[in-house]
Amino acid sequence: MANWLNDVVRPKIRAAFVRRETPDNLWAKCPGCDQMLFHRELTENHQVCHHCGYHMRLGLDDRIALLMDPGFTLVPIPEVPADPLKFKDEKSYVARMKDARAKTGQSDAMAVAYGTMDSLGVVIAVQNFAFMGGSMGLAVGEALVTAAERAVDHGVPLIVVTAAGGARMQEGILSLMQMPRSTVAVEMVRDAGLPYIVVLTDPTTGGVTASFAMLGDIQIAEPGALIGFAGQRVIEQTIREKLPEGFQRAEYLLEHGIIDMVVPRKDLKAKLARIIGLMTNQKPVPVPVALPAPEAEQPTV
Description:
- It is built from 11 helices and 9 strands.
- By secondary structure, the chain is α/β, with parallel strands linked by helices.
- The chain folds into 2 domains: 10-56, no CATH class; 58-280, 2-enoyl-CoA Hydratase, Chain A, domain 1, CATH 3.90.226.10.
- Helix 5 (138-154) packs parallel to helix 7 (178-191).
- The mean pLDDT is 90.
């Protein structure tokens, strides 16, 4: 009897009172309304709170999949010098790049894809804020030029989705040189008579705002996106005036004519396809039809 009590009954009683830990990745807290959101539902809703509509940041892979039809192709970006200035602060630039690549699985802060959007051919370039704040360096400049060349080669519109804290300080003047370089890439698309459309997401700031982010034929922003050059505090200290609340948010910029429209994430693909159709005199068809991929590239699944 004693063995039965010790070996069977007592372990079952202890197990009944053991605190079961809840996995910490089941819920997320909305920054907009503080509601707790089930991760699976949040993923299904493209990282948008279904209570208040707050748009959280969307990963690069999810962003491309959201906008493109299945069968799109990722375009290889030419390699750039890994550490042109041999920069080091608290840690070396090489170490920071290694950490960012391990964290995101991406080689740098921008990826380029081509394929179709509701059957209409398109090239998109997407910045990844998770990669060193989406900062613009040599690789981002190279990606934009590659995207522009691919758009011209295929005779399709170029869409750029921005998300950046500005130029990459570890590349110094070389990062600032990407501002005029990206402008030349945009002009290349325009000279070919092709649409250039910009989708501004949270946040879009610094040298990115001062260059290719504000050159679109059509400027679209996601709800609540922070868009500006310098921060509010810096501007207020410079001009010595108090600025209006939310003056760098998408809705304020729309009201004052800086951007053309604010589009919720769930409607973004359809809206872009309609705009492309109008600008190129084509009719969107919601049937996936991928462009043929060159032999050197492999289409994604």
